[in-house]
């Protein structure tokens, strides 16, 4: 599920040197103009991080149509306009003891107390005991967060693959994968999962729970899957899904998903890639990723890059992505703090 630069944390408000006007909004009150302003703030805060940028429309849909969307939004303004924002999300599926904080501060206003004021407002709104946020390496947030009492719990490396580029030693790679995966077949579907495939999707999506960054079991009942996939539609994200099945039994064995943001399709997001334990050791991870890559190459020449996130300890999936020739373009860490 996609990372945000945190606002500055406020344990010591004596350091605040600027008192911006803080406006408390429901995300449903956002209009196109304000959404564009907030997207611009976030893009500016990530100027040195080579990740996908938001349009105002994308930001608006994220705030109002995501399956786990923020419940409250705070906007900081000074005489020149919008200078920062913060969001608060209280998950309902798992991590129900935690509040997830996000946001950004314009570079011109960082280290001036704007973020502290925003985060103070957000923290005051929740009674959950655990505060969580994320930061990109090299940003102002990443430098400040540890000093404010947040402890880093995991780091994801963001790896990028250019679909138009040939893969390293591609002919040998494909021959090896074909030999190793002969007992399996793959199928594709674009958009939401067909109704007759939802039951197996539960099993495939829950396979992600033995990944190194899985700290709580994530249940994926059918209603959650359908709600998530509908939110992708509403946010203008086209979902490309590939499923591997055992040829003789028809048993589902693995899945990969990729999403293309139609408002800015140049950088697609790799979602879950999972292989069920009973079917590991057959290079299915490579089979699945090659299949979705071939699909994108054939149908989406507008996709110039695919970004995938890996916990830095997830050696099996890192090996798969290394074999495909991905390169690291950024690192994003998760932090937590008890109230």
Summarize the structure.
With 339 residues, the chain is α+β, with helices and mostly antiparallel strands. The chain is 29% helix and 30% strand. The chain folds into two domains: 13-149, Aminopeptidase, CATH 3.40.630.30; 159-336, Aminopeptidase.
Could you characterize what this model shows?
With 339 residues, the chain is of the alpha+beta class. It folds into two domains: 13-149, 3-Layer(aba) Sandwich (Aminopeptidase), CATH 3.40.630.30; 159-336, 3-Layer(aba) Sandwich (Aminopeptidase). The protein is built from nine helices and twelve strands. It has a twelve-stranded mixed β-sheet, sandwiched between helices. Helix 1 packs across helix 2 (56-65) and helix 5 packs across helix 8. The protein starts with 20 loop residues before the first strand and ends with a strand. The model is unreliable at 1-17 (pLDDT under 50).
Q: Could you give the topology of this structure?
A:
Blueprint: E1 21-25, H1 32-45, H2 56-65, E2 72-78, E3 81-89, E4 98-105, H3 114-125, E5 130-136, H4 140-144, E6 151-161, H5 170-180, E7 184-190, H6 198-206, H7 222-234, E8 237-246, E9 252-261, E10 267-275, H8 284-299, E11 305-311, H9 315-323, E12 327-338
Parallel strand pairs: 4-5, 10-11
Antiparallel strand pairs: 1-2, 2-3, 3-4, 5-12, 6-11, 6-12, 7-8, 8-9, 9-10
Helix pairs in contact: 1-2, 5-8
